[in-house]
Amino acid sequence: MFEQAIMAMASVATDPYLLFLIFATTVLGVIIGVLPGLGATTGAALLLPFTLTMDPVHAIAVLATIYVSATFAGSITAILINTPGTSAAAATTFDGYPLAQKGEAGRALGVAVISSTVGGVFSVIILCFAAPLLARVAYEFRSPEYFALTVFGLSMLASISAGGAVKNLIGGIFGVWLSTIGAERVTGIERFMFGNYELYEGLHFVPIFIGLFAISELLVQSKTVNKIVNTVSMKAVKLPTKEDYKRIWKTILRSCGIGTFIGVLPAEGATVASMIGYSEARRWSKNKEEFGKGSVEGIAGAEAANNAATGGAMVPTMVLGIPGSGTTAIILVGLMVHGLRPGVYLFTEQVEKVYQIFGSMFFANIMFMLMGLYAAKFFARVSLVPTAILWPIVFGLSVIGAYAFQGQLLDVWLALIFGVIGFFARRHGFSVAPIAVGLILGEMVETNLQHSLKMFDGAWWMIFAQPLALMFLIFAFLGLCGPYLYSLIIKRK
Amino acid sequence: MSNKFYTIPLFLTIFSIIIIGISMQLDTSPEMIVGDSMQARSFPIFLMVLNLILISVLTFQYKKNKQDLIKLEKFPTWGSMGLFLIFYLLTVYTDMFIGIFVVMLLMGLLWGEKRIWVSFLTATLTPLFIFLLFDFVLKIRFPRGILMNMYYG
């Protein structure tokens, strides 16, 4: 395993085209990350159609690079203009902006860059070792276990950061229902097609994701037209001092662990990780009074955690086919589109490609560190691009991207329709990520339930008799009801 | 509590009931194909029943927690949705790239860009750049219309 990982790293390092792609995508990812509203998920959704003609490893490397670099870049605007470029950088504003207002923007950015890089590299190393081990466990999975696992994945939607638990579950069910549109896989019976035979093979993920993430964001951003932003001046990005390192190294390590663990959990992501990383940094700090006023530990806690979550989230995505966040849902679609079947087979038959993808993520972390240190000031200026120019460009990219995927105008209309649906959902407090995750997991749930029923001659309760399946279903139950049960117990006490 | 708070649960309930109704009308397949597994209609019905249970919890939550009234969106939001309709009409009756150009131009102006030449340049150069990239590099053919007929011949 170790040897394969090293060989793959070497093959990435000696592939100039791949290195150029990672560099170019890191620049693009940082630009996407600093533009408020245009986060990693929207960026990956817009970029997916451009990867269609690429080699599978290059395509996934591009998407993964966008993921890690945009997640980091959200911190640049969080620190300089108090507007997180991505939701994962929201916790960075708590201390990043106050520190910048004190005239130490360079120091704040330096801490953010180093913490993000350590978090990202740590999670890639964990990914290299944990993913093959988990794949070995997953080798034992049959349909009942996969069914229970997807139910667990769907139950975790309840705790996605935006929206309430019930709203997220309703969104997830809507997504699963969307996956039933088209011909049923076993019997071939047409469902919800209304005579439209272009839907025979079901809704494809790409136009739906472009609609849900990019077009709906465009409509959300239309509410912020003419918003004035205050910037703070910055001379240069400084590397943290020895004293800073002494104060933050424990926080960074703790947040690396927290972020990677949170990332691995299905449907949890960088936003949750950064919030927990921040609050744990505060809990363990000797200088609690500095938090909220410009604490370097606060910045390090949030930034190390959110970038560590990127590698963690790739574990369930690549091993089990269960996305850890909205962006990994798009990466999962990228894997499928390029014929890389996520799961055990990916690690047994195409293990070289897997490690090349991990290697690309490693180099992406190094490249965004260099960009963060040497070009943060330039990238911060990009965030001042007027919305009246930026979002019409996003519209153009979205419609052409939706069309290019299958060469069907129907996909363009679907992207626009789902953009409007996504906008109204968000307007009423529903997050769109559960719809996307539900759409991906829907087929898995139904197919594995069908296979399980056949396997047990219709005796559905036999699913509970499988130890691993039972474990996942208990986890799902605890994920759904645990918080309520806990609050009930506390109340009684 | 205003009746407006029931709008979302009511809308979702109607949606779920309609889906159940449509699912009931779906064809059934012979026993020998389905065996001990599910009919094609069963899974969507199961999902919508689950949805109805969640909607009842949501209604209870809405009733319990006082919700803030959602402010109506500003003109740019509704205007942008209107532009999607214009895009549809232009794409169907003229050309997709004419639709993209017009919508990008109008969207820029609608969102407050006062320099018309900036919007014009954005609306011209962006689709042109994307078209060249997709046509020459990715080899993707676009739907025929006034412009594409001229280009493809």
Total beta strands of chain B: 0
CA distance, first residue to last residue of chain B: 63 Å
Strand content of chain B: under 5%
DSSP helix count of chain B? Answer: 7
Of all chain pairs, the largest interface belongs to: A-B, 59 and 69 residues
Determine the mean pLDDT of chain A. Answer: 84
Sheet with the most strands: spatial strand order of chain A: 1-2
Unreliable spans of chain A are: none
Question: pLDDT under 50 segments of chain B (min length 5)?
Answer: none
Rg of chain A, rounded, reads 22 Å
Sheet-strand content of chain A, in percent, reads under 5%
The succession of helices and strands of chain B, N to C, reads HHHHHHH
DSSP helix count of chain A?
Answer: 18
Work out the helicity level of chain B: over 70%
Oligomer: heterodimer
Distance between the termini of chain A: 50 Å
What is the 3D shape of chain A? globular
Topology:
The complex is a heterodimer of chains A (493) and B (153).
Chain A lengths: L1 H12 L2 H19 L5 H8 L8 H25 L9 H49 L4 H13 L9 H14 L3 E2 L6 E2 L13 H17 L20 H23 L5 H15 L11 H25 L5 H12 L6 H6 L1 H32 L4 H20 L2 H19 L5 H23 L11 H26 L1
Antiparallel strand pairs in A: 1-2
Helix pairs in contact in A: 1-14, 2-4, 2-14, 3-4, 3-8, 3-12, 4-5, 4-11, 4-12, 4-14, 5-9, 5-11, 5-14, 6-17, 6-18, 7-17, 8-15, 8-16, 8-17, 9-10, 9-11, 10-11, 11-12, 15-16
Chain B lengths: L6 H19 L5 H4 L7 H23 L10 H19 L2 H15 L5 H22 L8 H7 L1
Helix pairs in contact in B: 1-3, 4-5, 5-6
